[in-house]
């Protein structure tokens, strides 16, 4: 058999497939009427939709649209489409066949296809009927204005219940704090009275410690440590593996551990150790009493009772937080602000002043500039504008001086260093956005130099800064290059120190040469930028 011949079996299979396709049910793509087979579908298309007529030119589509419109709903209030004149009621675009022409079945206005995407149940009179109506395309305004649209369901206020639960929790917390304060008063007064009873005698130390232990157990009930195998706070097991022993808190009686630990974090290629919080601490009697000086103690320490002040009391971290955190917060509020935050507050206040002065200054400048084009000038307006200009430049000078003070602050830890760098970036951005564009001001106040001569020297320096030859783009590029150079200098200095410790003197010589070149380039950039490097 040749390759072009057809097998009888293949012909029978194709014939059986055609019979199956003809017998399968099909639906009309226009009116979705189901037909028994393809023959009936073709007859339906030729008879009902005029597909057999070659001269129909799409009349079957129009017939179907007219049939859809005449579905029983009222359409007498629909706007009539005028080609080239009708516009969408929402976007006001001209309606064409490309963007679609449709009426809202509820209000009757004409809309394009993009703004008639919602449906609503309407009755035969085009009124909203959510029970017996049928879905018809409507505009968003009609859909959103129907009753019940976007209404909230049943709401139950839980505020009173929340307030009741919160007040009960707060009352429990306050009672707990009062209980701990009362126990602390008894504990410290007992320590002082028992220590005074036995004095600072070496032979009476054993008896004193024994009596102090009995007194501690009388203040709060200690939990039995025979059945406790984990710490009450960190839930770590006691044993020889962690080399931790059991301790009782003298205020709550719970069993806690006292092991130390740390975790390492790598931030910006720097390794930092962060000490973790311990579960219990031994606090000296002097520190504990000074931290709670608002409590009324019956016994007071005398200057000659140093041995009593050095006694230590074991407290868990939960009781310490409950007793001291709130007091520490109130004490910190009375302390003066750190230098970094005080400079930031000053910068923020000066920036608010500058933002307040700039809009009226620019408006007045624009007004006078327009009057100069008309050859009309007002001496009073010029005087007011010069006063605003002096005030503005003086504020800029103050901002610049505070920014220099901020640069000279040495951070005490890594967090302060990050805050300082963020503040420097913010101040640099503020200067770029507000000071540098002032160079483009027209020479309106050319005759007002006598006013600037009366200003402070800092204002003159700032005006000289504004009249420099560098453009804003060059200043930004110079600052970015200077920041990169300073970072490279810092890294190479650390490499030099490491090489010196490892006694690699050949590497030290190479690194020192590179460091000198970087320092020279950084010095040139600083001289080029001048005061604008900040």
TrEMBL record:
One of its GO terms (biological process) is Golgi to vacuole transport. GO terms for molecular function: phosphatidylinositol-3-phosphate binding; zinc ion binding. It comes from the Eukaryota. Keywords: Coiled coil, Metal-binding, Zinc, Zinc-finger. The keyword Coiled coil applies. The keyword Zinc-finger applies. CDD domains: FYVE1_Vac1p_like (cd15761). Residues 482-528 form a coiled coil. Residues 48-76 are annotated as: Disordered. Residues 61-71 have a biased composition (Basic residues). Transmembrane segments: none annotated. Residues 225-324 form the FYVE-type domain. GO terms for cellular component: cytoplasmic side of endosome membrane; cytosol. This is Vacuolar segregation protein PEP7. It comes from Candida glabrata (Yeast).
